[in-house]
Specification:
Blueprint: H1 3-12, E1 19-28, E2 34-43, E3 46-52, E4 63-66, E5 71-74, E6 76-81, H2 95-101, E7 104-109, H3 114-127, E8 134-137, E9 141-143, E10 153-155, H4 159-171, E11 177-179, H5 185-197, E12 202-204, H6 211-216, E13 221-223, H7 235-248, H8 253-259, H9 265-277, E14 280-282, H10 285-288, H11 297-315, E15 319-320, H12 336-346, H13 351-357, H14 360-365, E16 382-385, E17 399-404, E18 407-408, H15 411-422
Parallel strand pairs: 1-4, 1-5, 6-7, 7-8, 9-10, 11-12, 12-13, 13-14, 14-15
Antiparallel strand pairs: 1-2, 2-3, 5-16, 16-17, 17-18
Length: 430
Amino acid sequence: MSVLFLISLTLLAPAQEEWLAVEGGTLFDGTGVVRQDQSILVRGQEIQEVAPLAQVRPPNNSRRFDARGKFILPGLIDVHFHFNVRIDPKISPWLPLHFLANGVTTLREMGNWIVEENQRWLDETQARGLPVPRLLYTGPVLDGANSLIPAQSVVLLDEMDARREANRLLDQGASSLKVYSRLPLNLVRVVIEEAHRRGRPVHSHLGIVDPRDAIAAGLDGIEHATSLCRIFLSPRESEAFRQASLKEGNPGSMRIWTKADPAGPEAAALIELMLRHRVNLDSTLALHEARREARDEDRVKAVRNMADFTVRYHRAGGSVTIGSHGKVPNAPPGFAFHRELEMHVEAGMSPSDALQAATRVGARALRLEDRGVIAKGKLADLVILDGDPLQDISNLRRVHAVILGGKILDRDTLFASREILTGTGEKPEK
């Protein structure tokens, strides 16, 4: 047999998958189950075994990670993330990498053009040798005439527009679609029809459409609790809000929530409707939170009412997930997701339920069957913490290590991306 033939066989053979054993930690598996002294055996990107430490025998060539005294949970899933390098060149280039360094392994970006912005960022960042989170796309928002964010929107004027553009985004790889505040109900319904025909969900930032009508049309998810404010208005007030939305966006939604009763009959009826249609709620509470230095009592009350409604929906059995929006007033860049999760706990959700919302429930809402829990056959996306977040949810910020697809990431390199990608010498918070 010739040497050249042997070389050819070597080049054609698949690369040998590496083994990783994460040994001895306390495991939160994403379903609420907690187990101590566990081992997770990974081959390539996939979890092969999860069992007590004494029962797992890693292959001799395994890389071993000592997780004794640590807390392990699935990679976090941010269902509502924004970054835009063109609009925000000082922060956006490195923001997804700081999320990854802080344990958020999956990001659903909800507003960029897929090829021109999301894919370009991925290609350019990977070309620099930097790891990237698992990035999901909706593409630009689907909106009506006179869009509030024209550079990040596709305006739909009729049914032909709606069917064509929905399918174009899906063809480009959109894992879900986002309908926006000025898209009329008949076109919202068409977008839903096209997405559902291809097995994809539709989520929304509502304005001129009453949430009850959108839900009845088959909407899968509500983004921002502010999208629900019209349920608290009389028919006359609701129509005035709709007309004002055609001019201003969501006029007075926070004012409406200031006066809303999250335990009242309107809220109860909406919760029942959402449960019946299995609607996901991503409230983005931290986005609307008043800055700590501001004394805005009305905003504090509005956010408290939105948070109360969110927890009531969760306790009724509704699907509640965690979305950061990318940046929020009361968290440094890279920690918006953590602040959002903390606010759910402050509102009354248990730390265990909040962590499930950030992992298993998020995966289910995005129809991702390969992640969100730590179990055999799932992606080996893991976060290893120095503290127990079930005792104090702020311990979620104490990240010791992040594993993405079976690879232990160099967090210092991810944090250094701020300088690498923008040329600034500023050091980020960790």
